[in-house]
């Protein structure tokens, strides 16, 4: 078995690791989208309740109802801060996994380039051997026929 063929196993393993990192990156990106969606929902609820409070304020509401609604709006604000932190953590994780994937991708490309170089060397060596064999056959034939 040629050296380049043996090295293909290493390239295959590198490709598998790269694919695993790509799959993990996809999952994390989906999670980032989900977390951002939750944040937008909270933002929408908060805006809806603020609108309700503003609308009811013009019509007159009890102080107790205003406090309950304002308390709920404040809780939504706190949840938004926590959710924003969760989004930031997932994005940080996404950056880490992206960097890992990029490193694995580059490593696999380097391995492939190295194997390509080895393959070219093997072809050149095989061509030289073939040319030597042809030269020997020609010289043997020429030597047998005589002058």
UniProtKB/TrEMBL annotation:
What is the designated name of this protein?
Flagellar FliJ protein
Q: Topology with regard to the membrane?
A: Peripheral membrane protein
KW Chaperone (keyword) present: no
Which keywords appear in this protein's UniProt record, sorted alphabetically? Bacterial flagellum biogenesis, Bacterial flagellum protein export, Cell membrane, Cell projection, Chemotaxis, Cilium, Flagellum, Membrane, Protein transport, Transport
The protein's matches in Pfam families, at most eight in alphabetical order, are given as: FliJ (PF02050)
Family per UniProt?
Answer: Belongs to the FliJ family.
**Protein's organism:** Reinekea marina
Localization, per the record, is: Cell membrane
């Amino acid at each position: 078995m040629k050296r380049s063929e043996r090295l293909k196993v290493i390239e295959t393993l590198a490709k598998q690791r790269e694919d695993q990192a790509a799959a993990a990156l996809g999952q994390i990106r989906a999670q980032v989208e989900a977390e951002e969606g939750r944040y937008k929902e909270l933002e929408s609820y908060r805006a809806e309740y603020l609108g309700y409070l503003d609308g009811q304020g013009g019509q007159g509401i009890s102080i107790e109802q205003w406090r309950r609604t304002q308390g709920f709006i404040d809780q939504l604000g706190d949840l938004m801060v926590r959710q924003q932190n969760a989004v930031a953590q997932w994005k940080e994780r996404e950056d880490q996994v992206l960097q890992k994937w990029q490193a694995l991708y580059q490593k696999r490309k380097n391995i492939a380039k190295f194997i390509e170089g080895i393959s070219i060397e093997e072809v050149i060596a095989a061509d030289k051997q073939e040319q030597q064999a042809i030269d020997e056959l020609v010289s043997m034939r020429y030597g047998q026929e005589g002058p």
